[in-house]
From TrEMBL:
Highest taxon above the source species: Eukaryota
Listed GO MF terms: anthocyanidin 3-O-glucosyltransferase activity; quercetin 3-O-glucosyltransferase activity; quercetin 7-O-glucosyltransferase activity
Signal peptide positions (record): none
InterPro entries: UDP_glucos_trans, UDP_glycos_trans_CS
Example GO biological process: anthocyanin-containing compound biosynthetic process
PROSITE patterns, A to Z: UDPGT
Parts forming coiled coils: none
Protein name: Glycosyltransferase
Gene3D superfamilies per the UniProt record, alphabetical: Glycogen Phosphorylase B
Lineage: Eukaryota, Viridiplantae, Streptophyta, Embryophyta, Tracheophyta
Stored CDD domains: GT1_Gtf-like
Length: 478
C-alpha cells in the first residue's frame, strides 16, 4: 500500500460563493479518490452557513466538518476554516463592494497566516489549488514553495476573454458597450464575439470600481504565473478556444466536475441555504410539463423585472417551480409578489426560497429551465437534458448565454430587448415548453449531452485530461 509519505497533499481554497464552492468540493472528492490528501479551506461564514442548512449536520458534534461522511468512505480530506475579515452577522450579499474589497486585501493576510501554521506543521504539503478569482495565489505559492494550480470554475471562453484583456484594450473593445457593434475576431481561438456578449466586468455598465479592479489588475496577471490551470469546461464544446489557451499555459478542461465524480458525493453538504423539498409537488405533474425558474445564488432583479416575470408565468399557463431568494431584489423584502399573484397561481406554481436544484431538474416532470445562465446551472441543465430560457444578469452569465443560445442552440433568449415584457415572457415560455422550436432545441440538447457524457467516460477527454493533470502535477511535486 502507498505510504502516506508518498501521497501528494494539496490545500484547496475556493472563493466564498455558492457557485464556486460546489465545483471545488467535487474536485476535492475526485482528487482524494485518486489518492490525494486534501486540506480544504472554507471561510468561517461559509462553514457556518453550510452546517446550519445541512441535513447531515449534527448539532451535538462540536467539531463539525462537511467531509466527515466522505472520510468514513476512506477519503483523506482535512478541513479548516478561516476568517474573511468580516463578522458572521455581516450581510455579504448586500454589501458587495465592501466584501469584495475585504476579500482582495484582508483575506490574503488571513490565508498567509493560516498557511504559515499548516504548511510549517506538515512539510508534505506540496500544492495549492486556489480559485482563479483570487489575486494572491502566486505570492502564497512562492512563499511556501508550493506548486500553484489555478481552478477556473467557468467556461474557457470567459477565461480567454479576461486573459486577453490587453487585446480588447488595444482594439478599443474594452468598456465599449453601446458604442461598438463590430465583432471581436482577434482573440486566439475565438471565431468572433460581439461586444454585447463580453462578461459584464469587461463592459462599462453594471460594473463597480472594485469588481473591475479585482478582475482586471490582479487576477488575470496572477493566473499567468500559475503552474497549471484546470477548468470546469468540456473540450468537445469549446475545442478551438481550449487549444489556443493550451498554447499559452498548461490548461486542462475537466468538466463537468460533478459528473466526472459520478455523483458519488451525496453525503457532503454543499448548499449554503436550506433546500425546500419539491418532490411531492413535482410528482403530481405530467411528464416534461414543469418549468423550473432560478437565478442562482447572487444575481439580483429589479421589482419591475420580478413583477413582469410573475405576470409572464401567469399568462403562460405553464406549471412552474420558482426559486425566489428573499434577497433577489438587492434587499430583504417580504412584499416580493405582485398583488394577487399567490391567489392566482394556486397549485399551478410552487415558489420556494431555495431548492435542491439537482433533484428538481433531474425530475422527469421538469421540461424547461428559465435560468440566469450561471455556469453550474448550464452544465446541470445539459446533464439532465433540460433546454433553457436564458435571462443572464451579470458577470460570465452574459457570455454563457451566447454559448447556450447562439453556439450550441440548446436555449432561447427570454427577451430580445430590455425591458422585459410579460407577453413576450409568456410567449417564450410556451415556445420552450411546447412550441415547434422545442423539438429542435431538444434534438440539439441530446447531441450536446452525448458529447459531455462521452467526455467524462473512461476514454473521454475530461477523464483523460484529469489523469494527465494529476500525472503532470506529480512530476512537478516529486
Ligand atoms: C455565479 C456565476 O454566474 C457562475 O457562472 C459562476 O461560475 C459562479 O457564480 P451562481 O449565481 O451561484 O453563480 O449560479 P450557478 O453557477 O448556476 O451556481 C448555482 C449553484 O447552486 C448550482 O450548482 C445549483 O444547482 C445550485 N442551486 C441553485 C441550488 O442548489 N438550489 C437553488 O435553488 C439554486
Amino acid at each position: 500500500m502507498e505510504d502516506n509519505q508518498d501521497k501528494p497533499h494539496a490545500i484547496m481554497v475556493p472563493c466564498p460563493f455558492q457557485g464556486h464552492i460546489i465545483p471545488f468540493i467535487h474536485l476535492a472528492i475526485k482528487l482524494a479518490s485518486k489518492g490525494y490528501i486534501i486540506t480544504f479551506i472554507n471561510t468561517e461564514k461559509i462553514h457556518h452557513q453550510i452546517t446550519k442548512s445541512s441535513p447531515y449536520h449534527d448539532p451535538k458534534t462540536t467539531q463539525d466538518d462537511i467531509f466527515t461522511e466522505a472520510r468514513k468512505s476512506g477519503l483523506e480530506i482535512h478541513y479548516a476554516t478561516i476568517s474573511d475579515g468580516f463578522p458572521l452577522g455581516f450581510d455579504r450579499s448586500l454589501n458587495d463592494d465592501q466584501f469584495l474589497h475585504g476579500l482582495a486585501h484582508v483575506f490574503s493576510a488571513h490565508v498567509d497566516d493560516l498557511f504559515g501554521k499548516i504548511v510549517n506543521k506538515d512539510s508534505r504539503i506540496s500544492c495549492l489549488i486556489a480559485d482563479t478569482f483570487f489575486g494572491w495565489p502566486s505570492m502564497i505559492a512562492k512563499k511556501y514553495n508550493l506548486v500553484n494550480v489555478s481552478f477556473w470554475t467557468q467556461p474557457a471562453l470567459v477565461f480567454t476573454l479576461y486573459y486577453h484583456m490587453d487585446l480588447l484594450k488595444i482594439n478599443g473593445h474594452y468598456d465599449c458597450h453601446d458604442n461598438r457593434e463590430d465583432a471581436i475576431d482577434y482573440i486566439p481561438g475565438v471565431e468572433g464575439i460581439e461586444p454585447k456578449d463580453l462578461p459584464s466586468y469587461l463592459q462599462a455598465p453594471n460594473t463597480t470600481t472594485i469588481e473591475r479592479r479585482i478582475v482586471h489588475k490582479s487576477v488575470f496577471e496572477d493566473v499567468k504565473k500559475a503552474d497549471f490551470v484546470i477548468c470546469n469546461a468540456v473540450e468537445e464544446l469549446e475545442p478551438k478556444t481550449i487549444s489556443a489557451l493550451q498554447e499559452k499555459q498548461p490548461f486542462y478542461p475537466i468538466g463537468p466536475i460533478f459528473a466526472l465524480n459520478g455523483f458519488t458525493m451525496n453525503t457532503v453538504a454543499t448548499s449554503l441555504w436550506s433546500e425546500s423539498d419539491c418532490t411531492d409537488w413535482l410528482q403530481a405533474k405530467p411528464h416534461g410539463s414543469v418549468l423550473y425558474v432560478s437565478f442562482g445564488s447572487l444575481a439580483c432583479c429589479s421589482r419591475e423585472e420580478v413583477a413582469e416575470i410573475a405576470h409572464g408565468l401567469l399568462l403562460s399557463e405553464v406549471s412552474f417551480i420558482w426559486v425566489l431568494r428573499p434577497d433577489i431584489m438587492g434587499s430583504y423584502d417580504n412584499d416580493i409578489f405582485p398583488v394577487g399573484f399567490k391567489d392566482e397561481i394556486k397549485d399551478r406554481g410552487l415558489v420556494v426560497p431555495w431548492s435542491c436544484q439537482i433533484s428538481v431538474i433531474s425530475h422527469p416532470t421538469v421540461g424547461g429551465f428559465l435560468t440566469h445562465c450561471g455556469w453550474n446551472s448550464v452544465l446541470e441543465s445539459i446533464w439532465f437534458n433540460v433546454p433553457m430560457l436564458c435571462y443572464p444578469v451579470f458577470t460570465d452569465q452574459i457570455t454563457n448565454r451566447k454559448l447556450v443560445v447562439d453556439d450550441w442552440k440548446i436555449g432561447l433568449n427570454l427577451c430580445d430587448r430590455k425591458p422585459i415584457r410579460r407577453d413576450e415572457i409568456a410567449e417564450k415560455i410556451n415556445r420552450l415548453m411546447s412550441g415547434k422550436s422545442t423539438n429542435d432545441l431538444r434534438k440539439n440538447m441530446e447531441q450536446i449531452k452525448e458529447k459531455v457524457e462521452h467526455a467524462i467516460s473512461s476514454v473521454g477527454s475530461s477523464e483523460k485530461n484529469f489523469n494527465q493533470f494529476i500525472g503532470d502535477l506529480k512530476v512537478r511535486i516529486f
